[in-house]
Amino acid sequence: MARRRRALVGVVVGVVVGALGVSVGGVAGAAPDANPDGLKLIKTKSSLLGEHYWYQQTFKGLPVVNGYYAKHVTKGGAVEIADGRDAVPADLDVNARIAPAKATEAANAAVTARANRARVAGPPKDMVKQPPATSGAAQLAVVGGPNARLVWNVTSRSTEGVSRSLVDARTGSVVESKVISDNIDGRGSVFDPNPVVSEQNEQLTDLNDRNQDALFLAQKNVILRNLDGSGNLNGTFVNIKEAKGGLAHSKTNTFVYQRQNDKFEQVMVYYHVNQTQEYIQQLGFTEVNNESQDFSVDTYAGDNSFYDPSADMITMGEGGVDDAEDAEVIWHEYGHAIQDDIVPGYGESAQAGAIGEGFGDYWAVTMSVPVSKGFELPCVMDWDATSYTSTEPHCLRRTDGNKTTDDIVGQVHADGEIWSRALWDIHQALGRNKANKVILEATFFYDPDTSFAAAAQDTVQAARLLYGKAAAAQVTKAFQDRKILP
Ligand SMILES: [Ca+2]
Ligand SMILES: [Ca+2]
Ligand SMILES: [Ca+2]
Ligand SMILES: [Ca+2]
Ligand SMILES: [Zn+2]
């Protein structure tokens, strides 16, 4: 569309002078520049061979989308111009008729619709309804070239990554919408959240990691988003760093295994951590363990998994049912990584430790809610627990117990049940998304050695500031019922 041309301008003198008013020689067939002086220096870079000056093309002070101009000056003084400016008619009206909020709405609708279409490629039955795209402020800009117009430039975040939409600022129609983040989607097969819940079957057993028809049927094909394209299970939010039997690798980013293959657990970790981080981002949090979390999978023989704050690494054990075959074990451990990321040195008191365990259990449960069809929601680690419990339903712990602070025994997992019940009550009182916003927001105010009472106060405060008095009263009641608050 737009003219793009590179011109070797030869040796300096006179050609490129100081600021860039310079016309670089006419371009055949193109309209004359409406404002050849509308160049704004945005970046200067040095390389081995010279200096590089990058300019944004502007029109009446507004950026011209994709309009660029670069000047490369070699050490020897040679100048090369890359002129990527687009012609803009001098009389283009730069007064928007559409309000930015309306443009944002149109852009988000387009992005959400596309993201949902992309997800239909997955299994239709278990589709989780995705939250709509979110976006920052709309910026006024100009599109040059043959279809020159004034647009609102809206950046949205959706399950597809980051998208840029251009909305005509006079008509409100979406002119263009495309994903600008460069992550790669892969394919995988997982349990979601685990076979006991998805099959609603408490009779399933591990049989020493053997493949079984019932477990094969419990597998679900999924899209693995935000992969870095290396062919490993490494991406924006998860890095499978070590694994028994070696790292899964696929040139086509296809990671389909059955559960007897240890690589199945690597896929479980990648998928479920990516899911939970996307959810956190959709709630509006951009700094809750917003990094590629390291995992070591199936590398511990005991029936335990753990988060190591000194290495910022989560290790998934393989005792009994491989821990990473149950997403709720993954989410519990990720809960520890979340708290450690938000509060440096978190967990330095017995009650802070109990809050950590209670939060991990709660996080596993709240993440399971959308994929559990209501089956035994407060039951934590339904599949992993089949190895060590005989009563049904099989649960390591629950988030709907009746413990209060009268029942404190000084063991972090046992005492954590007091906290997880309070959070679960908040979940039911406020609804999933509001509860999780309140709970995550409150965590930013925790001390590393916080107590039940202090953390409860932080949570009440977050509820009041985010959702008002009535919500704060509901949160207060949840803590009063546990005798955490008076
Ligand atoms: Ca396995
Ligand atoms: Ca981390
Ligand atoms: Ca296990
Ligand atoms: Ca569960
Ligand atoms: Zn834990």
TrEMBL record:
Protein name as catalogued: M36 family metallopeptidase
One GO biological process term: proteolysis
Keyword vocabulary terms for this entry: Hydrolase, Metal-binding, Metalloprotease, Protease, Signal, Zinc
Keyword Metal-binding included in the entry's annotation: yes
Native source species: Kribbella sp. HUAS MG21
Superkingdom classification of source: Bacteria
Taxonomic lineage: Bacteria, Bacillati, Actinomycetota, Actinomycetes, Propionibacteriales
InterPro entries: FTP_domain, Peptidase_M4/M1_CTD_sf, Peptidase_M4_C_domain, Zinc_Metalloprotease_M4
MF terms in GO: metal ion binding; metalloendopeptidase activity
The Peptidase M4 C-terminal domain, residue ranges: 396-483
Protein's UniProt keywords contain Zinc: yes
Domain FTP: 37-80
Pfam families assigned: FTP, Peptidase_M4_C
